[in-house]
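Hi,

I'm pasting everything inline rather than attaching a file, because the server keeps stripping attachments. The sequence lines come first, and each chain or strand is labelled.
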Amino acid sequence: MTANQSVITTPELTLRQQKILGLVVKTYISTATPVGSKALLEANDLGVSSATIRNEMAVLEELGYLTHPHTSAGRVPTDKGYRYFVERLIGDVELPQAEQNMIRHQFHQAKLEMSQWMQLAAAILARSVRSAALVTAPKVEQPRLRHLELISTQSQLVLLIVVFQGGTVRQRYLTLKEPMDQAALSQVAAKINSIGYELDAASLRAKLTDPTDFERDVLDLLMELTSGGDDVPINEVYRDGLTEVLQEPEFNKRGEANALVNAFEQPTFLNEVVSSPVGTVQVVIGGEGRWRELSSCSMVIARYGVEGFATGALGVLGPTRMPYGRAIGTVRYVADLMSDLVSDLYVD
Amino acid sequence: MTANQSVITTPELTLRQQKILGLVVKTYISTATPVGSKALLEANDLGVSSATIRNEMAVLEELGYLTHPHTSAGRVPTDKGYRYFVERLIGDVELPQAEQNMIRHQFHQAKLEMSQWMQLAAAILARSVRSAALVTAPKVEQPRLRHLELISTQSQLVLLIVVFQGGTVRQRYLTLKEPMDQAALSQVAAKINSIGYELDAASLRAKLTDPTDFERDVLDLLMELTSGGDDVPINEVYRDGLTEVLQEPEFNKRGEANALVNAFEQPTFLNEVVSSPVGTVQVVIGGEGRWRELSSCSMVIARYGVEGFATGALGVLGPTRMPYGRAIGTVRYVADLMSDLVSDLYVD
DNA sequence: CGTTAGCACTCGATGCCTATGACTGCTAAT
DNA sequence: ATTAGCAGTCATAGGCATCGAGTGCTAACG
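And the predicted assembly:
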């Protein structure tokens, strides 16, 4: 293997350049300061002098993988550099067995409740990757009715509670056009329960012939609740680790910190991931594509759950200077764990 | 009324001192820079010269109501100064009618769902006070059973869903010691539903004679869910406005910002308020008492709901340099609104 | 031709100095 | 009791020299 021979399908980078790029990325990720040729040489055993490294770095800069903050500073990876690192140089990202066990153990110890698991998942992601973590609740695709309850409150207000197959519960209040007592409400509920058991809202509507006005209202509400629509439960998001990630030096600057906090509070970017299949981990570096504001942030996200049945999203949000290996490994492992849980619990 | 005659029961401060203290607090709150004697004089029509104001300020400083960041700077209120301001000088804190209407209007426009109202309450608080807002879900004291559902999933796991009077829903998974099919589960659920309707968990246990092992497990879980215990739904907290409040100049310093973000993510201070009755607004300045870390933060919090039945907490968290008048007025108004909602919906 | 030693150069960071000016605190006069 | 006047204080900002990490270039080397 000669020096300028390239691996895989990367005609433009020599092996040595790859090695140097990888080392720069790794060093910068762990030290947070621009890395110079000399420092790189001292910490790692490359067979060459600092001058050679400087030359290679200059080439890597010309190719767009590295930059300089200013003339007399060391090199810093560009987004393209990180991207190359993630795609080709990162190697094995699987979590060590010991950590996998630890995580699995924590899940087994938690109380048997979805919300606890999601909170736990967020905590694990945050601590393991040292970044902000987000987990959304799994969303059932075609929820089938399990049980419906109509509860009268005062002032012509009725509380509707629906339990769907798999245990999703939704509730909503409903105003009555004319008063009804609890007995009448229970009767309607019983009727819908018997007709609609294990049906989705559309089938239920088709099957319920000649509904009263009130029954029609209830059905409309059911449709609305199951279609999802715009009321995607933005609150059903579990978060952790914001404090820790704000410690990172890149968030000294006011603007960067704000962009991060904003994204964390309004994680619209999680919708990005809906297009990808369950099980694949997506890496967005420096707010590629849209997400201009997140220029100094990266995210590693994945969907979890059972495709076509119930899926959610989870991931981490941190500086571009993120430990991508750990992040990808942890996100993948936790997503797989959560998928198993969903498959155990929701699919019956 | 002579100049050194005091109002109410404040023997130590003359009227003029009160006026000056009030002006200093107000000016500092709106400008965020230490206020000097001259600036104070120019903006307000006091009948005296700057030298007199300086003398009075020196007295106020000696009494502990004001400080100096350094010799050549203007005055800044101390926590004691803010406290005095809030207790005695603040005057009318009721929101103007127009704002009340606007807020009420927004509540009427929202979808009829408790979670939406809480999110809305947080949003209104955050925007109106320009600080971070927190709202916790109302917690029912002695929840009575409305409906219980047992749903079999694979792998000897049962999902238990309970609907309580008033619409609170809790769910939890339960492991079976030996397999049971859905029919058997439904039978148990039906039995508990018929016996326990409108009972609290303790009464239900008393009434259910000779329970099977599985029934006992279900009852234990019910007790655990209703006693609240340590699993106070820390996730059932609605938040808003963190981004905005982080813009305030006091959070330029890393440490202060972190303390705030921490408190916002883990709002243990909301437990502080459980001792106070519904309807009273509590003001904690500069992390008085415990909350040492929150030395540059203040909070204005209140409980809402129906005493002894279902109550939650809400409030705002911001810099000590907080518009206390608006904060108290808004928190009170929103808390009252939420109390009305709870009373309409939960009490039947 | 790739590699290397050596060296001039760049530029942020640091420290020191000197205004500048906003305020105070004091004193003496009113 | 109040006020005008003034000396004194101290954070802030700008100017300037120093330092040093790190680069880019050139010439020499194998």
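Residues 34, 36-39, 51, 54-55, 57-58, 68, 70-74 of chain B lie near DNA strand C (CB under 10 Å from a C1').

If the labels don't parse on your end, tell me and I'll reformat.
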